[in-house]
Amino acid sequence: MRSRSLSMPQVRGPRRQRGMTLFGLLTWAILIGAIAYVALRVFPTVNEYLTIQRTIDKIAASSPSTVAEARAAFERQKDIEYSISTIGGKDIEVTKENDKVVLSFAYDKEIALYGPVFLLIKYEGRSR
Which of 17, 25, 35, 109 is spaced 20 to 30 Å from 7 by Cα? Predict the structure, then answer.
C-alpha cells in the first residue's frame, strides 16, 4: 500500500490584523472634531478682517483729502458691509507716505472656545 501524502497547508505565524482600533478611531475623531470646532469659531473673524482690509484698500485708492473724510468713508462702508463690527472709523490711523494716503488698523479679537478657555487673535493691516 502506497502512502498518500496529503498536502498540508503551510503554517505561518499568527496573522496580523490590519486596520484601526476603536480607541484609535475615537482619538482621531476627537482630534479632528476639536480642530473643526476651532476653525468654525475663527472663520467669521478672518472673514471680518479680510472685509476690513478690502475696505481700507478701497478708501486709500480714492485718496481722501482729510483724516475726517477717510474715517467718514470707512463708517459709510461699515454701514454697507454687515460683517464689520469690531472697529469703527475712529480706530483707523491715517498717515501719508510719499504723497500717498496710508490707512492702517489693529485690533484684538477674543474668541470663547469653552468655559474659561479663550483664543486671542491679534489682527493688523494697512492699505497697499
Answer: 17
Is 102 among the domain residues?
yes
Please tell me the pTM assigned to this model.
0.78
Domain contains 2: no
Q: Which long-range contacts (CB under 8 A, 24 or more apart) does 51-57 make?
A: 51/81, 51/83, 51/84, 52/84, 52/86, 52/87, 52/105, 52/123, 52/125, 53/125, 55/81, 55/84, 56/92, 56/103, 56/104, 56/105, 56/125, 56/126, 56/127, 57/127, 57/128
Q: How many domains does the chain have?
A: 1
pLDDT in tens, 17-41: 778 889 999 999 999 999 999 999 9
Residue 19 identity (one-letter amino acid): G
What string of DSSP letters covers 5-45? PPPPPPPPSPPPP-S--HHHHHHHHHHHHHHHHHHHHHHHH
